[in-house]
Structure to design on (268 residues):
């Protein structure tokens, strides 16, 4: 499972997920005029604009997108999970990622809650602060709630967002080398990265940044032998004289021989 920032190539899949979910779920709660309003509100043009602004994310499970989330400033604006994947915690995971994004700048998250979702948001700690209504076609009225949730102030001593790392040392049972490049991203205390190069065709990692900058994450990749390898790692940072970061890592494979190893990676 990986939550990442959406790109323009994801537009059509996000559009299909949103429209299909609205048309499948919302008629149970709303008249058709209100369903049409939501379809127009979350149309392709608005999705494209939000992706361009860098505020849309997608949740990957296995080899496909199963859900999407969007926020603007302190307001969560679009969270949808494919109907067949609902009830598995994916929506909660997307919400947590969005709240982490918002908490970097704000101490409260807001959202407009539709009837199908308001009770789910209450379970996440949101409370109604205002009741609203919107007139749609044929005299129909959309009733919804504005809800808010206080957010913890998540901060870390080191922010890894936008930094690139390459291995300098590794034990023989490791597979990354000096030709492997890690591209780190961070929001709040959530860390993720893509990596490739050397023996690695494609890899991802996801984890948590401690307040002191230490990292705990899981990683998985496909190597040149087309093997899928996965492991767990703890990294301790050291800021060098030139301001670059060096990470001393202790890791263990979770498949194969499940051996342990150590490596050092440095900021490029």
């Amino acid at each position: 499972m990986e939550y990442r920032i959406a790109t323009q190539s994801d537009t059509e899949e996000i559009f299909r997920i949103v429209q299909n979910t609205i048309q499948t779920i919302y008629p149970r709660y709303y008249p058709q005029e209100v369903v049409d309003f939501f379809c127009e509100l979350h149309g392709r043009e608005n999705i494209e604009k939000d992706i361009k602004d860098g505020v849309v994310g997608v949740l990957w499970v296995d080899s496909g997108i199963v859900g999407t989330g969007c926020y603007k400033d302190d307001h969560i604006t679009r969270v949808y999970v494919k109907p067949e994947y609902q009830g598995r915690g994916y929506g909660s995971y997307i919400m947590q990622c969005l709240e982490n994004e918002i908490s970097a700048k704000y101490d409260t998250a807001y959202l407009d809650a539709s009837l199908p979702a308001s009770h789910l948001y209450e379970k996440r700690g949101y409370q109604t602060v205002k009741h609203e209504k919107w007139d749609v076609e044929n005299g129909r009225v959309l009733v919804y709630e504005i809800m808010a949730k206080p957010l913890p102030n998540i901060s870390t001593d080191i922010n890894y967002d936008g930094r690139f790392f390459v291995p300098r040392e590794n034990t023989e049972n490791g597979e990354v080398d000096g030709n492997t490049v890690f591209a780190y991203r961070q929001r709040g205390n959530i860390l993720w990265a893509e990596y490739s190069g050397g023996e690695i065709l494609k890899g991802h990692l996801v984890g948590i940044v401690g307040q002191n900058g230490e990292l705990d994450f899981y990683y998985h990749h496909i190597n040149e032998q087309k093997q899928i390898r996965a492991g767990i790692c703890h990294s301790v940072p050291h800021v060098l004289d030139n301001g670059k970061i060096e990470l001393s890592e202790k890791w263990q494979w979770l498949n194969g021989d499940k051996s342990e190893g150590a490596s050092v990676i440095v900021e490029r």
Q: What stands out?
A: The chain has five helices and 15 strands. The two ends are 27 Å apart (CA to CA). The mean pLDDT is 93.
